[in-house]
UniProtKB/TrEMBL annotation:
PANTHER family: 6-PHOSPHO-BETA-GLUCOSIDASE ASCB-RELATED (PTHR10353:SF122), GLYCOSYL HYDROLASE (PTHR10353). It comes from Enterococcus rivorum. The lineage of its organism: Bacteria, Bacillati, Bacillota, Bacilli, Lactobacillales. GO terms for molecular function: beta-glucosidase activity. PROSITE patterns: GLYCOSYL_HYDROL_F1_2. InterPro entries: GH (IPR017853), GH_1_N_CS (IPR033132), Glyco_hydro_1 (IPR001360). Keywords: Glycosidase, Hydrolase. Pfam families: Glyco_hydro_1. Belongs to the glycosyl hydrolase 1 family. GO terms for biological process: carbohydrate catabolic process. This is 6-phospho-beta-glucosidase.
Length: 475
């Protein structure tokens, strides 16, 4: 079976990882602007500073790859590849610098007007993430972010401002990026919980308030333009039991429910699943959920489901005691001896994507889109300037084959936007050396380089894939 004729081929980025210009034209500082670079060689991840000290530390988001000033050049390259869609995020603090202003920043709104016009010139559909780890720092500092219900209103005003301004320029929206981060201890910060130690009740209350904000945005967006398609976005970590021991299978089910299904159920089905309610009861997590909240969740369900997929992992009942662990996106697990790994220890599993698409679709039966997928790797620039990233081509080829197989299985898959279609800074460590793109950017881990763009071998390969609507995967 072939890909649908209207299949949305493209690529994905995030403002905090590519735009730079962190304090230009009235932009305020987001939580991402407080993340300084980590160091892969020493195994450290990005450190979060309450006070930004640019004299002492390097903050990668402050410069990114300078797409703020180079977006026309970048979009022209995307158009050359044949993109049908481009997933990007809007920097919340370009629109509302502190997050709680009465009026938006016109300079920020105009910037995205110009960007969308440039995409339209080439016939590229924008897919806009409203909040991609870019909560205004001020909202976290003053209100504890989404722990305070007032932040729901700040988000609703922000989203409504975007919907009204771009109602004729953007059709596809995503409310929050990787919303299920909020179920994790180290994911609290993205919801604004960084001033002190927070209880698990506070963690899930903040996540609940994010659900309400998302639902309100969906409702508002559909009123402003009934043709809007507004989706959710999750970081999907596909899990296999390490063995067929019933204990391993049960543990896998429990971890999978909490991380992968809880948020999807709330946003697609409009209510908390039974296992979440039971988890809250057992752990004395008492949330402020009103009757109005329940009605909003039911009324504000999303139109489609999107997710990131990079790897799979294995789960064992005795995970904490095992020595055969592996790294990965968000969290690792037990190593799978049947899979190869990337330079960063992420297990590469193309067949797992087919399994995942079927798992999600069988649960929700709404249109799906893979909005992040890719291989972070070291790229070597040859003496003649070429970059022969055959390893990346192989990664994408195998995953595209499995997407096609999932479509043949009956999955309603509508689009594919590989992550970091142009090299950008890593969300986990702030590095540039962990490259994902079809387009190379001359920038190193310390922020040095010309920022010049050049086409990798995979650029020409992906162009051919799009031209053939996924039929020609040859190198």
């Amino acid at each position: 079976m072939s890909f649908p004729k209207n299949f949305l081929w493209g690529g994905a980025t995030a403002a905090n990882q590519c735009e730079g210009a962190w304090n230009v034209a009235g932009k305020g500082d987001s939580i991402s602007d407080h993340n300084r670079a980590g160091d892969r060689t020493s195994g450290t991840h990005r450190a979060f500073d309450l006070v930004i000290d640019t004299e002492k530390y390097y903050y990668p988001s402050h410069t990114g790859i300078d797409s703020y000033h180079r977006y026309k050049e970048d979009i022209a390259l995307f158009a050359e590849m044949g993109f049908k869609v481009y997933r990007l995020s809007i920097a919340w603090t370009r629109i509302f610098p502190n997050g709680d202003e009465e009026s938006p920043n016109e300079a920020g709104l105009q910037y995205y007007d110009d960007l969308f016009d440039e995409l339209n010139k080439y016939g590229i559909e924008p897919l806009v993430t409203i909040s991609h780890f870019e909560l205004p720092f001020h909202l976290g500092k003053k209100y504890d972010g989404f722990l305070d219900k007032r932040t729901i209103g700040f988000y609703e005003k922000y989203a409504t401002t975007l919907f009204e301004r771009y109602k004729d320029k953007v059709k596809y929206w995503l409310t929050f990026n990787e919303i299920n981060f909020g179920t994790m201890e180290h994911g609290k910060k993205i919801n604004g919980l960084f001033n002190r130690e927070y209880t698990e009740t506070e963690q899930y209350q903040a996540l609940h308030n994010v659900f309400i904000a998302s639902a309100k945005a969906v409702i508002a967006g559909h009123k402003i333009n009934p043709d809007f398609k507004i989706g959710c976005m999750l970081a999907y970590i596909t899990m296999y039991p390490k063995t067929c021991r019933p204990e391993d299978v049960l543990k896998t089910q429990q971890v999978n429910e909490k991380f992968n299904f809880l948020c999807g159920d709330v946003q697609v089905k409009g209510a908390y699943p039974y296992f979440a309610k039971r988890y809250f009861e057992k752990n004395n997590i008492q949330l402020d959920i009103t009757a109005e909240d329940k009605a909003l969740l039911k009324a504000g369900t999303v139109d489609y489901y999107t997710f990131s997929y990079y790897m799979t992992t294995c789960i064992a009942d005795d995970l904490d005691k095992r020595e055969d662990k592996t790294g990965g996106n968000l969290f690792g697990g037990v190593a799978n001896e049947y899979l190869e790994t990337s330079d960063w220890g992420w297990q590469i599993d193309p067949v797992g994507l087919r399994y995942t698409l079927n798992q999600i679709y069988s649960r929700y039966e709404v249109p799906l889109m893979v909005v992040e997928n890719g291989l972070g790797a070291f790229d070597q620039v040859e003496a003649d300037g070429t970059i022969n990233d055959d390893y990346r081509i192989d990664y994408f080829k195998r995953h595209i084959v499995e997407m096609n197989n999932a479509i043949d299985d009956g999955v309603d898959l509508i689009g594919y936007t590989p992550w970091g279609c142009i090299d950008l800074i890593s969300a986990g460590t702030g590095e540039m050396s962990k490259r994902y793109g079809f387009i190379y950017v001359d920038r190193d881990d310390e922020g040095n380089g010309s920022l010049e763009r050049s086409r990798k071998k995979s650029f020409y390969w992906y162009k051919k894939v799009i031209e053939s609507n996924g039929e020609d995967l040859s190198v």
